[in-house]
Amino acid sequence: MAEANFEATVKEALDMFRPQLQADGGDMEFVSIDDENRVHLRLTGSCGSCPMATMTLKMGIERYLKDACPEVTEVVQER
Q1: pLDDT tens, 29-55?
Q2: Which residues of 34-59 are buried (b: 16+ CB within 10 A; e: fewer)?
């Protein structure tokens, strides 16, 4: 998959997931995709300071992204 298309697909999937975060007063910011197909995100709003943020990131966003884009290897939280 071409790099630009991969990033566009990832961003589209993130936009589909975003309302779930916004419902709780949070959001996420796309940072980058590295050479190992790890997606780097920054959680913002109430998600940025939530003690459950890591679980949301791994069990929610990462699982959803891997289903939508099997090339994604991991989702990494940036501070």
Answers
A1: 999 999 999 999 999 999 888 888 888
A2: eeeeebebebeeebeebeebeebbee
- Rounded distance between C-alpha atoms, residue 41 and residue 12, angstroms: 14
Q: What is the pTM of this model?
A: 0.89
pLDDT at 54: 87
C-alpha 29/C-alpha 43 separation (Å) is: 6
DSSP-derived pairing of the beta strands 26-33 and 38-45: antiparallel
